[in-house]
Every structure is written in structure tokens, then in C-alpha cells.
Design brief:
Layout: H1 2-23, H2 36-40, H3 44-47, E1 78-90, E2 93-94, H4 103-110, H5 121-126, E3 129-134, E4 137-138, E5 151-153, H6 158-163, E6 168-170, H7 180-194, E7 197-199, E8 205-208, E9 214-221, H8 222-225, H9 229-242, E10 247-253, H10 264-275, E11 280-284, E12 292-295, E13 298-301, E14 306-309, E15 319-330, E16 333-334, E17 340-346, E18 359-360, H11 363-377, E19 382-384, E20 390-392
């Protein structure tokens, strides 16, 4: 009985303990607080509950590559070409001329082909090309045409041109056929043998300088052909372009003898030549000086006058000139320039007659000839400096 009572008390105590335990709150241990050091290493976004973005690496500049050395530029090839042009040269006599004081007598007396151009030789030798108008023929033929003046000299007279440093002649004029086709053929043969370039009508001339500049030119006789000479100019320029000419010249035998002003058709034809491609127009036939006109940056010389002129023993007007222009080529391309000059001359070195020795004028004589040219060119847009330099009037 006593043992059973103790068991009952044990179970009552056990139940009471369980009841007490179930009525208490269960305590959960809180995490230990972090130290300041630990907190500082946590990203702010993470501490604030924001998404964490991984830091991106800071780009670094690529090492600079060395600056390449500049490519050397080729030096431009610059070539200058100076042309001298002079007027009518008739190396001989006409049929009715007296022998005394004639060209032939002078040639036979001096026995020196260098005599005739000796006073201008320094000028011609210093240029790249000298071009004159050759008026007359070099032949032994007696087949003279029926006209007032038939001019001829011996074929050996080409020595006068070569001794004077003349490289080219224009033959498109009214005296080429003074002794018929045979006289012309003899003249061509003499020029070819002497190495002198020539042109007339549909025969064009090309002179090539040692530097490789090719100068092409036509030579037409407007006095005889009139407007028909335009065909020779057009076709001649086309042919010269095909043959690689770097410069184009037009030599025009035109105008009225002893007239100091050009005709209307001279001016029209001169401008047409430039429109067709001429870099320079060179005129002759009047036997006296005429003015120079500027057109589209190019020059038209209306008349150079006589120069070494054997067909007149004592012309009343002995004034003449040498026209010079220098052209510049850069890498083979012609530059547009207008620099040119005239050298005033007399066709004789003595005043009382013609001794067939053209000579540069000096001092007051040079100034007088330049003043005449100013008057002749007044309406053509060209003036002249004291040294003969051409000035284009604005």
C-alpha cells in the first residue's frame, strides 16, 4: 500500500514538470554582433540589402606605337624653256638688186658666216630655241616666177643660220615659191642637211630641246591663202598633239606691208590660233614693227619686222626686235605664265645703210623703240617696262 502511494506521487511530479516546461517561451540565441572592422569590409549595397555589382576593371591605355617617319616626297622636276623669235630673214638678193652693198657682196667679202648674227649671237646661244621667218629660197635654179621680188641665196647660206645659233625657221610665206617648187625643194634639202627645223603649210615642225621639251609649230601664208590657212592651223595642231608637242606655236605671214597696225582679220586669226591651242602667235610680213596683244593669257605678236634682211640694202625703217618668252614645266606640265620681254634692235649696226648685221639697241635708241611699241600696243592690253618686260594692263 505504501509502495503504490510512492508511485502515484512520482507520476504527479513528472506531469507537473512537463506542464511547467511547456508554458515557458523558448529563447533563440541571437547572432553575435559584428565588429566595426568586419562591417567596413562589407559592400554598402550589401549592407543596405541592394544587389551587389561586381567591380569592373579600370581600362588602361595601350602603349603608344611609335610615330611613323613621314614618307619622303619626290622633288618636282622643273624645266624652263626660253624661246627667241625674230622677224624676216632673207639671205640673198632679189633679181634686180645691184651687187654693190648687196647681201651677196657682203657674204663674199667677209668670208665668215658668223658675221651676220654676231651681234645677237650671245642672246641666241643662251636661249633654248631661236625661230626666224625665212623669206626667200636657197637654190641655184633660174626658174624664176613672174613677180616683182624673187629672193634667193646659195644653199650653203644655211651656215649663216647655224653659226648664229638659229635652230628653226618658218617658211610659210609669199616667197617660198619664188623659184617654183624646185626652189622650195632645194631650200628644204639645205635646211635638212644643216639640221634646221622648218615648217610651211601642211608641213609642221617639231624642235626637241636637250631637256626633252618638244616645241611644235605651224607656219601659214595668210597673204596668199586668206581664210584657207585656217585649215592648216587646225590640222597642224592636231598632228602636233599626236606627236607629243609640249608647246604649240603659230607663225602667221599676214597683214599689209609697211602698215604699223594689224588688219581686222589679223586680230581675228590670231585669237583663233589661241582658241585652237596656240601658246604663242608670231606674226610677220609687214616689214615693220606692229604691236603685241594679250589674249587669254597668251601673246599675239602682230609683226616682228625685218631682221637680217638681204632684200633691201637700206630700209627707211630699221627698227626691229627680238621677242623672248620663258615657259616653265613642272613634272612635264606647262605652267600658265605671262613673263616675256622684247629686246629692241636695229637691223643694221650702222645707220647710213643696211650691213645685214642686226644689233641690240642701247640707251636712248632702245627707249625710243620701246616707246613706239607702247604706242602700237596701246589698245591691246600690253605695256612695256624700261627693260622691255611685257606688262599686262588690268
Amino acid at each position: 500500500m505504501r509502495a503504490r502511494g510512492r508511485q502515484i506521487l512520482f507520476w504527479i511530479a513528472l506531469l507537473a514538470g512537463l506542464t511547467t516546461a511547456c508554458g515557458r517561451d523558448v529563447e533563440v540565441a541571437a547572432p553575435a554582433p559584428k565588429s566595426v572592422a568586419e562591417e567596413s569590409t562589407q559592400p554598402a549595397a550589401e549592407r543596405e540589402g541592394l544587389p551587389v555589382v561586381a567591380p569592373q576593371p579600370i581600362p588602361t591605355a595601350a602603349p603608344a606605337s611609335p610615330t611613323p617617319a613621314p614618307t619622303p616626297q619626290p622633288t618636282p622636276q622643273v624645266i624652263t624653256f626660253t624661246l627667241s623669235a625674230a622677224g624676216d630673214c632673207s639671205l640673198g638678193n632679189y633679181q634686180d638688186q645691184d651687187y654693190a652693198y648687196s647681201f651677196r657682196q657682203t657674204y663674199e667679202q667677209v668670208q665668215d658666216p658668223g658675221y651676220f648674227f654676231q651681234n645677237v649671237h650671245e642672246i641666241f646661244a643662251a636661249d633654248d630655241m631661236t625661230l626666224v621667218n625665212f623669206e626667200g629660197v636657197l637654190t641655184f635654179s633660174e626658174m624664176r616666177q613672174d613677180r616683182t621680188y624673187n629672193i634667193k641665196g646659195d644653199p650653203s647660206y644655211t651656215d649663216i643660220l647655224t653659226a648664229g645659233s638659229v635652230e628653226a625657221v618658218s617658211m610659210g610665206n609669199n616667197h617660198r615659191l619664188d623659184y617654183g617648187q624646185g626652189g622650195s625643194d632645194d631650200t628644204v634639202a639645205a635646211m635638212q642637211e644643216a639640221g634646221i627645223v622648218y615648217a610651211y603649210d601642211d608641213h609642221v615642225g617639231i624642235y626637241e630641246s636637250p631637256q626633252g621639251i618638244r616645241v611644235g609649230y605651224v607656219s601659214v601664208n595668210e597673204v596668199s591663202w586668206g581664210e584657207g590657212c585656217e585649215k592648216f592651223i587646225r590640222e597642224g595642231f592636231e598632228k602636233l598633239r599626236e606627236e607629243g608637242a609640249d608647246l604649240l606655236l603659230a607663225c602667221c605671214h599676214w597683214g599689209v606691208e609697211r602698215d604699223y597696225q594689224p588688219e581686222a582679220y589679223q586680230r581675228k586669226l590670231g585669237k583663233l590660233c589661241i582658241d585652237l591651242g596656240a601658246d604663242l602667235v608670231i606674226g610677220h610680213h609687214p616689214h615693220v614693227l606692229q604691236g603685241i596683244e594679250e589674249y587669254q593669257g597668251k601673246y599675239i605678236i602682230y609683226s616682228l619686222g625685218n631682221f637680217c634682211f638681204g632684200a633691201n640694202r637700206n630700209p627707211s625703217d630699221k627698227d626691229t626686235m627680238i621677242f623672248q618668252q620663258t615657259f616653265t614645266f613642272v613634272d612635264g606640265v606647262k605652267q600658265e605664265e605671262t613673263a616675256a620681254r622684247v629686246i629692241p634692235c636695229s637691223l643694221s649696226s650702222v645707220k647710213e645703210r643696211n650691213n645685214y648685221q642686226p644689233t641690240p639697241a642701247q640707251g636712248d635708241e632702245a627707249a625710243r623703240i620701246l616707246e613706239r611699241l607702247r604706242g602700237f600696243s596701246r589698245d591691246f592690253g600690253v605695256d612695256y617696262g624700261e627693260d622691255g618686260t611685257l606688262i599686262i594692263k588690268q
